[in-house]
């Protein structure tokens, strides 16, 4: 007899964003423990711990080659060159 597949996605995250925010504010402001706040608001303890220590948010994708400031300067330069009708791609790709 084959196993019956049961979706797990419907059982996850049964709390709302408001509950999560109020639980986190309770932990930060009132000094309630993460475990106690998890029980009170019905949110898993690990979720609250992860959100509490969220100083280092995970980024998707690889690291960037240029910094944000350098990339913005490069974008502005390309836009200025296009305004004066200097097409950089045509110059680079000349046969």
UniProtKB/TrEMBL annotation:
One of its GO terms (cellular component) is nucleus. Gene3D superfamilies: Homeodomain-like (1.10.10.60). The lineage of its organism: Eukaryota, Metazoa, Ecdysozoa, Arthropoda, Hexapoda. This is HTH psq-type domain-containing protein. It is found in: Nucleus. SUPFAM superfamilies: Homeodomain-like (SSF46689). GO terms for molecular function: DNA binding. Residues 16-55 form the HTH psq-type domain. Pfam families: HTH_psq (PF05225). InterPro entries: Homeodomain-like_sf, HTH_Psq.
